[in-house]
Specification:
There is one protein chain. The protein is mainly α. The protein folds into 2 domains: 215 residues, no CATH class; 100 residues, no CATH class. The protein contains 14 helices and 7 strands. The strands form 3 sheets. Strands 4-6-5 form a 3-stranded antiparallel β-sheet. Helix 11 runs antiparallel to helix 13 and helix 12 packs across helix 13. The radius of gyration is 22 Å and the shape is globular. It starts with 12 loop residues before the first helix and ends with a strand.
Length: 341
């Protein structure tokens, strides 16, 4: 029997933005793509001998609360209509494809397992990842070329906080066919993966001592309107520091020239993304993950500043490649990027 389509799915964006989260009446994940992903996560945990099955619920964003071995999934993944609204408002749907969804689920499962087995109390955890109770920052600064952290989610997220470093390392360790021993051979991050392997061997087959099924900040009782939620997101993104990127644009990027050929920079860069990545990987011997992240940051900044690239499409592509090489060299010289959490 087909499930009834929610009444709000036919509403306009303007009408949906006036709704409160609790009016969406989101309960357990019922969407097929989510159910498949959760089953897959459970299968991967089972294959590793990990007894925990994190419970899930809908919230405003992805997270796993300290002390609660569960995973909050953002509300917009509950239905295609909510995904469309999210894409319109934020330009991207985090976890909106099968690969990205599994990456984030594995990451959040790392937090849940940390809570379930109280792993952060162990000396090996603290010696490998740092102080787990360090203040959680509103923003974090990254070294794009660091080899002390695994490369998993976008934005060099392992560098955000010791707890995120742990969760990112767990996600990479859990992923089938990650080949982490060979991929990270010679990297300081390999020691973290080996520590993770030892920690997981120690809890293999053991029931978790923490089993709370509490749901923190569930949208089922959230009175915030979607408009207020998205406005808050805009204010948070406004505090990002793109100084390193801005210093590398040069004269080819800027406002739309009144009487000259030009193209919007962000769409052009998106259309040649793979070529830009290949260029800096080959010319500067850059790690492919780092190259992809740098290109993504530049596209985001071009979109935010509404920049244009001067010249013909061919000249624009050449200018974009030069800009990416300048940015990569600046990162290699010790430049840092800053991301808002």
């Amino acid at each position: 029997m087909a499930r009834r389509r929610p009444a709000w799915a036919a509403e306009t964006d303007a009408a949906m933005l006036r709704m409160r989260f609790r009016d969406l009446r989101l309960g357990r994940p019922r969407r097929a793509v989510l159910r498949r992903a959760i089953r897959r996560l459970h299968a991967e945990l089972d294959a590793r001998g990990i007894a925990l099955r994190p419970h899930v619920w809908f919230a405003e964003e992805w997270f796993s609360p300290d002390g609660i071995p569960g995973i909050a999934i953002p509300f917009y993944l509950a239905h295609p209509r909510l995904e469309r609204l999210e894409r319109r408002m934020n330009g991207v749907v985090e976890g909106g494809n099968a690969t990205g969804l599994m990456r984030i689920l594995r990451h959040e499962a790392g937090h849940a397992i940390d809570s379930a087995y109280r792993l952060r109390r162990r000396r090996a955890w603290r010696e490998s990842f740092g102080p787990p109770l360090a203040p959680y920052p509103d923003a974090y600064s990254v070294d794009p070329l660091s080899r002390g952290f695994v490369q998993h989610l976008d934005g060099w997220y392992a560098q955000a906080h010791p707890a995120e470093d742990f969760a990112e390392t767990f996600a990479l360790w859990l992923a089938p066919r990650s080949r982490w021993r060979s991929r990270y051979a010679g990297w300081p991050a390999l020691r973290k993966l080996e520590c993770m392997d030892a920690l997981m061997a120690d809890i293999r087959g053991r029931a978790p001592p923490v089993r709370s099924k509490h749901r923190i900040d569930a949208v089922a009782t959230d009175g915030l309107t979607l408009r207020e939620y998205y406005r808050r997101g805009v204010e948070r993104r406004a505090h990002r520091d793109y100084a390193l990127v801005d210093g590398c644009f040069g004269r080819d990027f800027g406002p739309r020239p009144p009487r000259a050929r030009a193209r919007r920079a962000a769409p052009l860069l998106r259309s040649i993304r793979s070529g830009l990545v290949a260029d800096v990987v080959e010319r500067l011997d850059l790690d492919p993950y780092v190259a992809r992240q740098l290109v993504g940051v530049v596209i985001d900044r071009c979109q935010e500043r509404r920049l244009w690239l001067r010249g013909t499409p061919r000249e624009g592509r050449a200018a974009a490649a030069r800009m990416l090489r300048r940015l990569a060299r600046a990162a290699r010289a010790g430049g840092r990027l800053r991301f808002t959490l």
